[in-house]
Design brief:
The chain has 203 residues and is mainly alpha-helical. The chain has 2 domains: 45 residues, Homeodomain-like (Arc Repressor Mutant, subunit A), CATH 1.10.10; 149 residues, Tetracycline Repressor, domain 2 (Orthogonal Bundle). Helix content is 81%, strand content 0%.
């Protein structure tokens, strides 16, 4: 029973990442999981509940990925907003975001789909996580600007930065073709990282 449930979750993640929530087929999920037609209702209750569980797993993965940055942010706050610490943390957050946007793995695709076109489950699953991340990043940008930006401008810079980096996925073909890159390999990611850091005046 546990194996069947796990198989359904794995196939659901693949289906939701490929098609999004609305277009995903529960019949296709069950076919690939080799499970009977009643399995989704038995194990999860509904398609929406299954999707919410997939989203919870995605959130847990990214919460873990950001935990080190979150701990360092707490240290930064204790050090009264040290500018150098702020710059180093922004760099780390940029690298994580670039990895998220360029990896193309199922969890990343599901997360970006939700961020760009939220489902009804978005607020319940990702709302607090994303709000906290944006608040941290905007606060760090404000500190690193050394008075050049207002709080509102730092918030807008944060939103523009996130949108730009996530467009590496949503506009992947346009960017790769425009840059004559075959993929987001390590060299491409490094160029993106340095370009973003220069745009933010991170020395």
């Amino acid at each position: 029973m546990k194996k069947t449930r796990q198989n359904i979750l794995e196939q659901a993640a693949a289906e939701f990442s490929a098609k999004g929530y609305s277009e995903a087929s529960t019949r296709e999920i069950l076919l690939k999981a080799k499970a009977n037609i009643a399995s989704i209702n038995y194990y999860f209750g509904s398609k929406e509940a299954l999707y919410t569980e997939v989203l919870n797993r995605v959130r847990d993965r990214f919460t873990e990925a950001f935990s080190e940055v979150s701990d360092e942010y707490d240290t930064y706050i204790k050090n009264s907003g040290d500018r150098k610490m702020a710059e180093n943390l922004i760099r780390k957050m940029i690298k994580i975001l670039i990895s998220l946007a360029c990896s193309g793995d199922m969890d990343s695709i599901i997360y970006i789909r939700e961020y760009v076109d939220p489902s009804p489950a978005y607020e319940k699953v990702f709302g607090g996580f994303n709000d906290n991340f944006r608040k941290m990043l905007a606060d760090l940008i404000l500190s690193a600007s050394d008075g050049r930006l207002s709080k509102e401008e730092a918030g807008l810079s944060c939103m523009m930065l996130i949108s730009f980096i996530l467009s590496l996925y949503t506009r992947k073909n346009i960017i790769l073709n425009g840059m004559s890159w075959k993929s987001y390999d390590d060299a491409a990611r490094e160029k993106i990282y340095h370009t973003v850091c220069r745009a933010l005046n991170l020395n």
